[in-house]
Amino acid sequence: MQATLSLPSSSTMLNKNFIYGVATASFQIEGGAANRLPCIWDTFCNTPGKVLDNSNGDVACNHYNLWEKDIELIDSLGVDAYRLSISWPRVMTQSGDLNPEGVHYYLNILKRLKDKNIKAFVTLYHWDLPQHLEDNGGWLNRETAYKFQEYADKISIALKGYVHSYATLNEPFCSAYLGYEAGIHAPGIKGKEYGKKAAHHLLLAHGLAMQVLTKNSPNTSNGIVLNFTPAYPATDSAADKAASDYADDYFNQWYAKPLFDAQYPSINEQLPKDQQPVIFKDDMEIISHPLDFLGVNFYTRAVYSHDDNEKFKEMPAREPRTDIGWEIYPDAFTALLTSLNEKYILPPIYITENGAAMADKIVDDEVLDNDRISYYQSHLNAVHCAIEKGVNVQGYFAWSLMDNFEWAEGYTKRFGIVYVNYETQKRTIKASGLAYKNLISNR
Ligand code: FCB
Predict the structure, then answer these.
(1) Ligand 1 pocket residue status of 409, Cβ below 6 Å
(2) 95, 188, 236, 274: most buried by Cβ count inside 10 Å?
(3) 154, 52 in Cβ contact below 8 A?
(4) From the alpha carbon of 25, which atom of ligand 1 is closest?
């Protein structure tokens, strides 16, 4: 069983300027809920039956209080960068002013990272929409995009000098589709007529935020983080191929094409009118603001077949699978990166998330997660292959620094390279964390 991570000695991923990092998100680790406004995930967690273990983010990893120790931990892994997100409801008041206490909290973190020479990759929106904005329609209300621009404007001025890179949004697909169409993420709204409308306002919010980031923070690398679940046909049949192409446009290209081509995939015209986004005159130009980088999150692929009633049908995930049930299929990662590179004129790419939930066991203060190490190995290899094929990938972030609140799965799924005991809040670096550390330090 594999306990180390390695790359071919010729790999540019072994260059010192290739950035290795670890990633987290505010709601998933912070806790400190009493020191911020409520967000849609607080409300969702408090709605019975929404989160698998009926848990919430009130304490999470208590990073709100343990951040100093956690930065020591990050530093001990020898990473070049740390990807974190800012909690919008922590730094903005309901009346739209900065909340000094919240800003201070992040400034302390960012200053400490700077002292330690760890680059801060800051995401402005990793799903924790202030509840008062949801009460006003949330992402179904165009106004929310302008509220996001105001927040991005104020916070980027307040954090000036401490951030290496800003991502506007994390995975707008999840916010829009899971949150407003499938209803399995906050705010739990369900209906085909909502998903693309929410998606459009999220993308508009992104473009509006890019405008202020470019102005306030011209020296940071500013972009967006998208997730991709590459679509594969169940068989070689033309019908399955068409189904998987449609699903790819619906779930993946829907978020990429507007950024690079200033238009939605052509399937938009096939959607019933009430499912189409409401597009104002300059929207597509705003959305396609040039990016300094594209963040790519990859975990798995999906397989689709033809369906007589719907455009496609998703097949059950094939083996082998991780503990969250996602198929392990690293070839899709290489194929994704090369196909994006063929389809669009891309800015530099960072892999902003990649990792696996595994059924970890802690024994004598050790977690021997060789299954996670092999996941990382095969996916690092996949990134290496994409680079060999000409894709400009400049960095890789492991999801996640530590076990945390995994959204609708609560605390039942562990994605960390560091184990968290939620009773004691003790952190223990897993074998995968040690292997990652060695890979980085042996460059
Ligand atoms: C991504 C999310 C991240 C984490 C991983 C497992 O979709 O961005 O917060 O939950 O999945």
Answers:
(1) no
(2) 188
(3) no
(4) 9
What count of Cα atoms within 13 Å lies in the side-chain half-sphere of residue 418? 25
Domains along the sequence of the chain with CATH: 12-441 (3.20.20.80)
Cα separation of 336 and 315, whole Å? 19
Which atom of ligand 1 is nearest to 227's Cα? 7
Instruction: Render pLDDT for 306-325 as a digit per residue (tens, 0 to 9).
Output: 999 999 999 999 999 999 99
Positions annotated as catalytic residues are 171, 353
Q: What is the pLDDT of residues 253-276, one digit of tens each?
A: 999 999 999 999 999 999 999 999
Q: Ligand 1 center to residue 184 CA distance, Å?
A: 14
Contact 301, 327 (CB under 8 A): yes
pLDDT band at residue 31 under the 50/70/90 scheme: very high
- Tell me the DSSP string of 364-392: TTB---HHHHHHHHHHHHHHHHHHHTT--
**Amino acid residing at 89:** P
Confidence of residue 343 (pLDDT cuts 50, 70, 90): very high
Q: Separation of 322 CA from ligand 1 center, angstroms?
A: 14
In this prediction, residue 96 carries a pLDDT of: 98
Strands of 209-337 (E only): list them.
221-228, 231-233, 293-298, 302-305, 313-314
